[in-house]
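Researcher: Final request for today, and then I'll write up notes for the group meeting. The sequence and the SMILES for NAP follow.
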Amino acid sequence: MNRIELISTDNNKPLLFTKVEKPKLKPGEVLIKNKAFSINPVDVKTRFGGGIYGALKNEDHIILGWDVAGEVMELGEGVEYLSLGDKVFGMINFPGHGKAYSEYVAAPEEHITIIPAGISYAEAAATTLAALTAYQILNRHIKENDRVFIQSAAGGVGHFAVQIAKLLGAHVIGTASEKNKEFLMDLGIDEFIDYKKRAFEDSTKNIDFALDTMGGEVLLKTFGIMKEGGKIISIPTGISPETKNKALAKDLHVDFELVQSSGEDMYQLASWLKSGKIKPYIYEEFKSNEIELAHKQILSRSTRGKLIVSWDKD
Ligand SMILES: NC(=O)c1ccc[n+]([C@@H]2O[C@H](COP(=O)([O-])OP(=O)(O)OC[C@H]3O[C@@H](n4cnc5c(N)ncnc54)[C@H](OP(=O)(O)O)[C@@H]3O)[C@@H](O)[C@H]2O)c1
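Model: Predicted protein-NAP complex:
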């Protein structure tokens, strides 16, 4: 039997913790015994009817979660590269039904990769959706010596974005509150902006590329710090045609991008983890019956790095 978390879209109802059958594998999938998984804002948004709820609403039960680290217990038909007992991690079926809050997770082989030696399950689980988001976007849009602006540089996506932008040779400017200054300086950020003390739009300029993690008014203010022809990728939600037109009038490009499951990109992250070039920061590790607490922490919008749930803590 399989212990899982089910969701309710009624804000007043708690997450449901129940038992269902272990998943049956489709061709190309492996069964992972979940050791640790990570919590993302999209989990909480989807739980309350936002995020990717629209894509999942016709499922019998929605099982939240996309980020998993664990051990391969069964191999589906046609699995080519993985073996029983392999320690693997990745972001499963995003944007679809990931079911990573389960004790056993069916994962397409092509969405996961091997955890490097010396990296814990918790560290691996932390280096998934948020890290993939940062990597996929920055790898597509930035080049050496670009001035790259990261909004919410200390958050789940942000702290990976700072490290990856530095690896790609950028000059990195980021926002956070004072308590995260030393953390970000240690990650190698070139310019730190305490957004609570000074408006970021008055604190920097000539930006080639900005990663917007806030949307709304903050996104509009970002226009003012960009170089002519600069690009902004905003990740919280889609961009209205009105906002796109305002950007075009200033010779700026603004788009929304959504992270995609990719074992190939996980392989790149794994090699950086192995060489110590990127390092996840784990703000708090929860037990599997403490997911409500983890969701509350995400809603506070004050998390440094990542939140992890470890089955081994139970
Ligand atoms: N499109 C995609 O594929 C995609 C992928 C991943 C995430 N997202 C979205 O991106 C957003 C960020 O995700 P995340 O995982 O990085 O969130 P997160 O870890 O919860 O972000 C928390 C961080 O936000 C910072 N913050 C809060 N208010 C701020 C402000 N006004 N200005 C600057 N920083 C501020 C906090 O820093 P302080 O504590 O120092 O204030 C904290 O470190 C969410 O909306 C998420 O759903 C989208």
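Model: DSSP finds ten helices and 15 strands in the chain. Residues 130-256 form a domain with the Rossmann fold fold (CATH 3.40.50.720).
Researcher: Thanks, that's everything.
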